[in-house]
Amino acid sequence: MKAVDIEKYKDRFPNELSGCQQQRVAIARAVIKHVAPAICRRQILHDWCSVKEDKIMNSYVAWGIFGIISGFLAAFADVPLVMPNQSENIKLDGVCPWWADATSKRFRVSFWLSFLGQPGGYIVMWLLADLISKENTSLACILKVVTLIGCYTGLMSHVVFCLKPLLYQKLCRKMSDDESNEVIKAIDPIFNPPMYLAGVMLWLGIAVIVIAAILTGALPVSKWCVVLNPIGSLVVLMPLKKCGVRIIGALGFGFVLLSVLLIIAANAVVF
Known about the structure:
Layout: H1 19-77, H2 104-133, H3 137-172, H4 177-215, H5 230-242, H6 250-268
């Protein structure tokens, strides 16, 4: 009304307007007819985007919660692989004498906990890469490659950790301890390279990429979040181990920390 100078006539009836004034009203109506729908469309688009953002954020949070549960499953999968009432590390090569007297059930339980727990951790890593890709596609691609390599080498490594004790138990019943040891040691050169690769990818690779994403702003979270990775889990758990406390698997707990990071980042990212 201001644009066509008819605001002062807003209280008049149509028949009280002159021909020129009525033409100005017609112009104002034409402007409203084209501008108002555009305003409505922007509002509708804004509302739709807000709903979509909420759904996306909620999905990331849901996957983060799933990752926390999965991470604890993977963390507890390491417990049956160490000697009962001890806080030693999982043996990567050779044999452990206590395997011969252990129940086979503990190694089967370990496998299934890892089988059910590890995928959630890899999903979390992939979703973190999606968030990072909004600011740094190169870093996101590297994280996805590391995740793919880690997912199959990681699960394969845990399968080997569970199969070696079971195989050793069977061998001990049919041959001497020394012969059983030789058979197990013959397997190690085949499986050790993938296990070491899994260690580099899932421990060092993931930690370096996530820390770089946080420090460069690709993940818009507080700087203290640099501890939310597998290396950070070692910082948390190793003092407990030094005190003789029996701890859960550090890598699985690292998955838990990454899941917490996903939830924090999902709430911080503006889609």
